[in-house]
Amino acid sequence: MSKRIAVVGGGPGGLFFATLMKKRRPEWEITLFERNQADDAFGFGVVFSDATLRRIEAADPVLTDALAAHGKHWEVIDVVAKGETHSFGGNGMAAIHRRTLLRELQAKAAAAGVDMRFGEFVPTPDRLGDYDVIVAGDGANSAFRTAVGDDVLGHTVEQAAAKFIWFGTDRMFDGLTFLHRRNEHGNFAVHAYPISADVSTFIVETDEDTWRAAGLDEFDATQPPGPSDEKTRAYITALFAEELRGGRLLTNNSRWGSFRTRRTERWHAGNIVFLGDAVHTAHFSVGSGTKMAMEDAIALADGLAAHPDDLEAAFAEYERVAQPQVARVQNAARPSLRWWEHFGEYYRALEPWQFAFHFFSRSIPLQKIRLRDQRFAEAVEAEWTARNGAEVLDTPIELGSQRLPGRLLSWGAEDELVHASGEHLDATRARVVDLDVEERAAETADAELVILTGGDEDERIFESERLSLSGDLPVIIELVDGTADQAATLVLSGRADAVVSR
């Protein structure tokens, strides 16, 4: 039985779904509505990991073909801070200009027979009453999601405190490069990466206090899309003049914003089903927005092809496949977003080698880093050994008047911390901070160390890091079945002084 499907939103997710669905069910009528013109594109580049490319290519080679013809690929990520560059290899990634990707996806959709209507704004679902299925891929500020109701879908938004602005530049970077600068106003950082033969993306982040101190809060970001913040462009051009090497910053609706993480429990209501940013976002530092939308498209097309006469079953299958994929990305993005919320503190507190490792280990441990780039892992370990005279877990730790010969501990008898050597110490002189207890233990003058327990692991690590960077006492973090890999990662990165396993 033939169906009529309306796709609202001509971004990568909507275009990819329309193409896949038309190829699988050529007899179905697929109409795509996009409020902007075909050659309009806001922003600059989109990034994909090699693993993502393999999954999308299995459905359709449009992305790999476009990247091969027009994109850029790299393996190494650089962190540049305080005059030093630290490189981490083994991170296969590729990027392409958003406008180019849209052009390639539009060509594929046209070839498949999708009816694309550009410059046609559909504000509400009631305008599409004669369609069997409405696929809403109308972005983070989805009008269709609002029409259905955030409460109906279980939609929530969490706004980050940090500020970011998206530029391009004609200064060509070799791969993903993170640039850090501190001036009289505060800390600024850049995510830069090539997206074509002559353009790189150049995203700037800072904290709100620095943003205001620099006078960059004057532009009205609520005005309709179009104008860019020229004052900020001039300021950032001057601040990163050395790194830009005479290159220009390019604008395209470039204005400051704060990232919003969106989560949604239910991705459909009646015959309306959502994909992409309309129902989920993850911080851009993990390069995931377009990836998730295109993977949604694959899962939705699969669901509808498998259950053409039962929309509820089709949508349930779509959510069963796609929601866990999105949850994994969002869980990985949490520590990354948190890192960018506090990067200025880390920059001020850590030496460049440790700052770089702190960044790269925000989501993966030392042994995974070693598998990707043994040279980088060994260089970090060598820096530690040069400063401490021993490998990280064999470095003695002074805990006030007490001492243990290593950094991975376990609980012994009541209130005893035990090292594998058999040496132990009395932990009664510790200030125990339990994140499950609302009223925290008060600081005491005779405390010789801090032991951190409770909460979930991410909370505990973040609090341990905060105490380690701001306090004078050694911090020991408790982990459930803590491993040597976890302990080495936390200690090398400065997030804790030792780990106690329970």
From TrEMBL:
MF terms in GO: FAD binding; monooxygenase activity
Keyword entries, A-Z: Monooxygenase, NAD, Oxidoreductase
The keyword NAD belongs to this UniProt entry's keyword annotation: yes
Xref: InterPro entries: FAD-bd, FAD/NAD-bd_sf, PheA/TfdB_FAD_monoxygenase
Domain FAD-binding: 134-309
The name this protein goes by in its record: FAD-dependent monooxygenase
Organism annotation: Leucobacter chromiisoli
